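Question thread 4412

I'm putting together a teaching handout and wanted feedback from people who do this every day. The idea is simple: show students a protein as raw sequence, then show them the structure tokens that encode its fold, then repeat with a second protein so they can compare. Below is the first pair exactly as I plan to print it.
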Amino acid sequence: MTWKQATTDEIAQYYQNEFDAQFDKIPSFIRDYQPKEIGIAFREAYPVQGDSVPPKRFVRRQAFGDSSSDFTQWTGDGGIKQFIKAPPANDPITGKHTLVSPDLVDVPAVPEAVYYATDFPSGTGCSS
């Protein structure tokens, strides 16, 4: 096996063809405690709406506003899966930190990496 950095096209193909099946395999010990935030890392800094806000290589968004552990919920349009697959088109926030529409910029809108943050209730731990 030879390792190499994935191209933007290869990453985009992964999100279009394989991501949904992998997302559905998230272990129950994670699903039981909802994500607090979803973070997206871009290979290149991605522009945001505000003139005084620099482009971002990493953005994070609140995942849920309630105690639901249903990954299909989202506070914006499109759901978490759609936000991960196409962050600018499905950005749930508005204002000067909103990601610019991919139609208006010449920067790849495909995330290079996705991060997940959760808060486990005190006394709760994960073991294998």
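The second pair follows. I'd like the answer to focus on this one:
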Amino acid sequence: MNQVKQYLSIFSPSSSQQRQDNFENYWDFTQQHSGDLLESEQDLTKKRAVLAHFKANPITLRQPFAQPEAFYRNYVELKDDVSTLDRKTLLLTCIYKFARHEWVGITGAWAATPDFANSKDVTDRISRYHLAEEFSHTRLFHEMFCTLGLDKTEWVPLGPIAQKVYEFFPKLPEDLMSPFAFVTELMGIMFYRYVDNILDEVFADEPEACARLRELLNEITIDELAHIGQRRNYIGDFGIKVSAWITPPLFKMFFHDIPETKLFFNIDNMIKEALVFDYKEIPTPLMEKTWVPSYCVVPA
């Protein structure tokens, strides 16, 4: 009988040699997991095939989405009194706003990182694959909206100041950028797990659509689990202490910009769970498809 793996905190200590070995291991994993890079299209062959499968097998809603106009009016900026909006609409506008920030961030990072032909080492190649995976997430999020008949959803840039911040961030030296990049990946996995926990309740009357939304979210989550380990791998002992220190203010600042989150989630609890994240609450089927740094795995 196969022994179930046991995991340690994502904040576990690591040596420089362990991290170097893990970069090589992650590079092998990500190529196998995502396929070949289609750089001009910001895509990967296996990610494209996954999306094509979902599009070829669409889900039909039992009832048309009740408030499409309200979604389109509020998905970029919350304008209506929330008491007039149903929970489906609010959750979807919440998801869009989170994904929009990610889309803006990876767009800026793509422009700032070397293309594959000019990648000098394994970390450069990993960065390019990582960003292509993140672009595939935007397409999966878009497929969520299409599943619910909201196919007119557009990806809208942030305001000029926020855009400049996202463009400047990937140009920082790696030692300065890495703790922040790691915490944003941790924020992503916490947000996706919190969304997953309420899907059944919010979409109780649309079980087929709910199952499809979870399938799409799981595809993103599997990558995000690998990404938190990959970003963790850039950080030494001092950097991981900095990461823990900046987690509460960064979470609060980010989610303050998404007012819907306070209607669904307890951000203080999310922060507490992030600071002790150790993979134990992640379903086994997802863990079997992702990647974890060796120093976060209990030796058999």
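Top answer:
Good format. For the second protein you could add a caption like this: The mean pLDDT is 95. Residues 16-295 form one domain.
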